[in-house]
Write a structure and sequence with these properties.
The structure is a homodimer of 163-residue chains. Chain A has 163 residues and is mainly α. Chain A has six helices and two strands; from the N terminus they run ααααββαα. In chain A, strands 1-2 form a two-stranded antiparallel sheet. The longest helix of chain A is centred in the last third of the chain and has 22 residues, at 102-123. The two termini of chain A are 35 Å apart. At the A-B interface, helix 1, helix 2, helix 5 and helix 6 of A face helix 1, helix 2, helix 5 and helix 6 of B. The first copy, chain A, binds a DNA duplex (23 and 23 nucleotides) through residues 1, 56-58, 66-72, 86, 89, 92-96, 154-155, 157-163.
DNA sequence: TATTGTTATACTCTATAACTATA
DNA sequence: TATAGTTATAGAGTATAACAATA
């Protein structure tokens, strides 16, 4: 499922395995923790950024690096849960502002605690100084050579079947 | 597509973003680099471990943490490319040994160079001492609290439609 | 003409279920 | 009965295409 080898026999350190494995495990922990209050990671992400400022679906999609169609279903879920509402933008009648409800704001505060807690727990085993060092080095990597993905080839798709 | 926030406004360090983003970017680079010699990461993984010892599909699936059905298509791809062959096991007539061809061995050597090179490149920007520190801390994380995924709920599926 | 949000749907990936042949 | 490998296919996730309203 994760695809890169656990590599007991590898000679070089296997960065792919280290990053894939840790990010995968953290993701499962995060999903499980957020599921307890009925959220997905995406819902949390949208909720938090919609709370910071008046933002359209488009803007939130860009921030969270999602497709606009993914944003539609995410906002649908937030609306159905009563955590956010679509409001027409006052400046652009095509656009919809994602407005967080009072209940949504409460849930966002709680979900942020959960997210921080899961991160906390993951880093807890580091001895005092190592934690800061680790985060500093991870940031260096994320902002350096591993900042921008290389684009895969566009998949090429048949035109839609009418129905 | 990656789902966790880039978070310029977040107060706590966002470990989810750091791990998701870096692993995602590294994966795209690895896929692009291996694609140049016609391999996927999975094909490389199977090739390398099949070369180390006589191994069945089942054993290789466990090592690479893949489903056995995923292994079938991976070995199909290796066979079609002339890099490996299925040979009956001498001890268990149900099992198939994945035997790497001479061409497959050459490709495996090359793909291992590619993998190491991509890792090398990613770590290259670290100043001398930091690289070892980083790998040590990543290993600590991967073997510690982020070693085992929590199981999501089983999806529950309809019986197969006969056809 | 271009863009926002929407619906419908195609595609990829992965894993379950069912099957065959062995054990 | 249980297991290795296979086939068929269900389902999740995601992105493209087409469309309606508006810019």
């Amino acid at each position: 499922m994760t695809a890169m080898t656990p590599a007991p026999t590898r000679t070089r350190p296997d960065l792919s395995y280290l990053l894939d494995h840790t990010s995968h495990v953290l993701r499962t922990r995060m999903a499980a923790a957020l599921a307890e209050i009925g959220l997905t990671a995406r819902m949390h992400c949208v909720l938090v950024h919609a709370l910071e400022a008046e933002r359209t679906q488009n803007q939130l999609a860009e921030i969270g690096d999602m497709d606009k169609t993914t944003m539609v279903v995410t906002v649908d879920a937030l609306e159905k849960a009563g955590l956010a509402e679509r409001r027409p933008s006052s400046t652009d009648r095509r656009a919809r502002i994602v407005a967080v409800t009072p209940e949504g704001a409460k849930v966002a505060a709680r979900s942020q605690e959960i997210v921080d807690g899961v991160h906390e727990e993951a880093l807890a085993s580091f001895p005092p100084g190592d934690r800061e060092v680790f985060l500093r080095l991870m940031n260096h990597l994320a902002q350096g050579h591993l900042s921008t993905p290389v684009a895969g080839p566009a998949p090429a798709r048949r035109p839609r079947q009418r129905g």
